[in-house]
Specification:
single chain; alpha+beta; seven-stranded mixed beta sheet; 4 helices
Length: 184
Amino acid sequence: MQIPHFEEVGRTNPKTIGDRLPEEIYSLALDHLVLTCVDLALIYHQQILLTRRNQYPRKSWWLVGGRMTAGEDPLITAQRKAFEEAGLSFSRDRFHYVGVYSTCFALREQEPRYHGSHTVNLTYQVKLTPDEQASLQLSTQEYEIHHQWVDLEQVETYLEADDQIDQALLHIIQDIQRLNGLHG
């Protein structure tokens, strides 16, 4: 299953991926809007890539991914994020829908930081080939150098039971296990 995307003929958006709102307007938007993100569970054998983000809203273990751009098909976002953030190129048929998750973060990168942010995360899994796994290069703008390939069965040992966003990640992992016919 994929996420259906419908685009009416004649829709135009004069903004490009590189266009950004001024910081003060973006901060205000974060107070009022829910952002949509696409997250990628990169799987190699029975392991998942856990990354440590170096920016809020999540400075801890998470997946590769980020914001959609207005008008962008979710699979185009998935391809873009895979390339921008992990240096990997995939055809559309490589992405397998896992689920959609709502995450409310206590902190954000923009001031006032303590206002937090809310995202809806469209999540896909991609099973990597050995060459892809070996060539993966995370963006140092988004991620700490430290990342970890973790057995799907062991992810819980990296997470804190009282952290709600860790519990969201655990829920995603359980859905991936079910998708792949593993117990979990």
